[in-house]
Amino acid sequence: MSNMEQDRWSRVKGRLRSSVGEDVYTSWFARMDLESVQQESVHLSVPTRFLKSWIQAHYAERVLTCWQAEMPEVHRIDLTVRTAMRCAAPAKEVAAPPDQRRAERSDGRPAPELRATAIAPVSASHDALGGSPLDPRLTFGSFVIGRSNTLAHAAARQVAEGRRGDSVMFNPLYIHAGVGLGKTHLLQAVTWAGNSGSERKVLYLTAEKFMYGFVAALKTQTALAFKEALRGIDVLVIDDLQFLQGKSTQAEFCHTLNALIDAGRQVVIAADRPPSDLESLDDRVRSRLAGGLVVEMGSLGEELRLGILKSRVAAARAHHASFDVPAPVLDYLARTITHNGRDLEGAINRLLAHSKLNAQPVTLEMAEREVRDLVRPQEPKRIKIEDIQRVVARQYNVSRSDLLSSRRTANVVRPRQVAMYLAKTLTLRSLPEIGRRFGGRDHTTVLHAVRKIEALVTKDTALSEEVESLKRQLQE
């Protein structure tokens, strides 16, 4: 690069700094380099695809205007990712998505063209913000509806079919369920459907990806840009929220959640437990999550399991026309594989592999042999602290509010201690979480109650029988 070009580039950067302000310039343009100037075009580079996509979508006009002040003959800006350009062979150029094609400037002339060098993404916004990978199979068309997921499916469809500017019916939409019951399928279906057109920006992120994006932005001094980008989308979809860790990351998630909801943007979240059980999250975040529509996806009933199996067989037959699973085999699988949907899909994959590799038809005997490790004993019922409080209150003829209160009378203290003991022995909740759910008590109070009841049941036969009766009621 000649000295004259370098001087010109320095002046352009000065104009950019004055135009957008110091903070925005530092976040977006401080790491932009000039690669070459060729007649009517200027070739610039940035270190990350994230920076390239955001500048391309929001600052193309500014960059061109600043260059034209120095070189009126410039009509196009080419922007590439430095690492891809210098360290690898040039990627084949592809047409940009509709919302990234050359727009009209205010004076009627074409906006500057910032050409992409990567494969066209599912949507510009999803790719630009580093969205988590999407599985093309996880759409509404392949989702099997049953009694346990009807409400969650209907709510997700309502979100996916919304249009920019529509009033948001419930925000956030919070879906929780155990492993393999369809949470991720629904969230990705929302993303696929929402991104099928160019009207809305829908971003799907796992909690891990959100954390990675925020930490990476801090390291590269683009945190302001990261926040600005997240808050500029229409629908934010966060999966596996229970894995969100770190105070600074949680604080940023809280600010992003509030900013999006207050601006009327849609937020969809999935986790393996209800908001009240996300012990690692701040109370304000839990409260905001609980203020939307909270939907639980229950366990898969036998009828729904059979529907899932038939759906997976049909999908397999699209590629293997001769593959067939007799009805008695499907009934057997639906009756015995009760854990989750992934086990059902795994069972079909095993039968397909065995049938194809060994050139044998699927039989009931083969199925029993191939999936025996997937036939698991029925899991015990997942007991909730609210259930324990309700059953104990009924047993001892006190109210649930009495158990949560500060009352210290004998007729309340003993039931409260029994309830805390059952919460510790029948759930996986920590002592601090149990204390919080019993009126905000300290974990030492819970520990005292647990030890007290443990000692009494070894000596007091009547109390021991009461506790065992309560356990049976809760586990039925």
Notes on the structure:
The chain has helices at residues 3-20, 22-28, 49-58, 60-70, 82-87, 124-128, 150-160, 183-194, 207-219, 223-230, 247-262, 283-290, 302-317, 327-336, 341-358, 364-370, 385-395, 400-404, 410-426, 431-437, 443-457, 461-475, and strands at residues 33-38, 41-46, 76-81, 173-176, 202-206, 235-239, 266-271, 293-296. The chain contains 22 helices and eight strands. The strands form two sheets. Strands 5-6-7-4-8 form a five-stranded parallel beta sheet, sandwiched between helices. Strands 1-2-3 form a three-stranded mixed beta sheet. The chain is α/β, with parallel strands linked by helices and 476 residues long. The protein is flat and about 95 Å long.
Overview features:
alpha/beta, 52% helix, 476 residues, 22 helices, flat, three-stranded mixed beta sheet, five-stranded parallel beta sheet
Question: Secondary-structure map with pairings?
Answer:
Layout lengths: L2 H18 L1 H7 L4 E6 L2 E6 L2 H10 L1 H11 L5 E6 H6 L36 H5 L21 H11 L12 E4 L6 H12 L7 E5 H13 L3 H8 L4 E5 L7 H16 L3 E6 L11 H8 L2 E4 L5 H16 L9 H10 L4 H18 L5 H7 L14 H11 L4 H5 L5 H17 L4 H7 L5 H15 L3 H15 L1
Parallel strand pairs: 2-3, 4-7, 4-8, 5-6, 6-7
Antiparallel strand pairs: 1-2
Helix pairs in contact: 1-2, 1-4, 7-8, 9-10, 13-14, 13-15, 17-19, 19-21, 20-21
Widest β-sheet, arrangement of strands: 5-6-7-4-8
Which term fits the overall shape? flat
The helix-and-strand class reads alpha/beta
Number of helical segments with 4 or more residues: 22
Strand content: 5-15%
Instruction: Give helix % range.
Output: 40-55%
Order of helices and strands: HHEEHHEHHHEHEHHEHEHEHHHHHHHHHH
Rg, please?
29 Å
- Taking the alpha carbons of the first and last residues, their distance comes to 77 Å
> Which sheet architecture does the biggest sheet show?
5 strands, parallel
Mean pLDDT: 80
Q: Which residue ranges are poorly predicted, with pLDDT under 50 across at least 5 consecutive positions?
A: 84-125
Number of strands: 8
